[in-house]
């Protein structure tokens, strides 16, 4: 499976962001990618106004998603991204969607909200309550995660127990002391401990560190980006997953039951 990683800095204006997304989709499709992963919360961002994303939230049938669906028509490319969509109690949902050929083929509302390092995502966002179903792309089973989820091994393990061979992680990973180290360490750990590929895409810009990467099932980084906008490609092989799981059968040897959400 050929994957594309499109990292960019999210603009204050959603119209600019949708055009960036469409451009990356077109470029990925031209290179015959099967999967394009974009960053987290790509609808709109203003780093000087934490509430701006909530102010700009759009429903699934709003103009942002409608334009992306239109751009996806006629191709086999699956595009994964997250954006804020209106929820209840004057808050939003951080919704991950996968779109393909004019349709939304998967949705996952972020389970773990980023209430850490002096930030409070829960002030503006409602946590999801469902483990996402796997998505099949080019014969490989793909599990969906969002940013802060990577710090919680249970979700990645549950997806692997469900059969995931690839984990995708749109993110807006905030800069800070050791944060780039955390990003690489955590994405590598989730791939290695579950013998899955990890495709993690970060947002660029003054607040976030970008550094998108693909980690293979034995913890090897096969492609990495820096801090600037980029579109990278990598090939994921089902044979590599099978070889890793034969050599390192941690899922088979595991004596714990698959993780469950708290009631």
Could you say what the CATH architecture is?
Answer: 4-Layer Sandwich
Identify the overall geometry: globular
**Biggest sheet overview:** 7 strands, mixed
- Please identify the structural class as seen in this structure: alpha/beta
CATH H level: which superfamily?
Answer: Carbon-nitrogen hydrolase
CA distance, first residue to last residue:
36 Å
Domain CN hydrolase: 1-238
Organism: Candidatus Pantoea multigeneris
Protein name: Deaminated glutathione amidase
Pfam families: CN_hydrolase
List keywords for this structure.
Nitrilase/N-carbamoyl-D-aminoacid amidohydrolase, seven-stranded mixed sheet, globular
How would you summarize this macromolecular structure in one to three sentences?
Helices cover 27% and strands 26% of the residues. With 263 residues, the chain is an alpha/beta fold. Strands 1, 2, 3, 4, 5, 6 and 13 form a 7-stranded mixed sheet that branches. Strands 7-8-9-10-11-12 form a 6-stranded mixed sheet, covered by helices on one side.
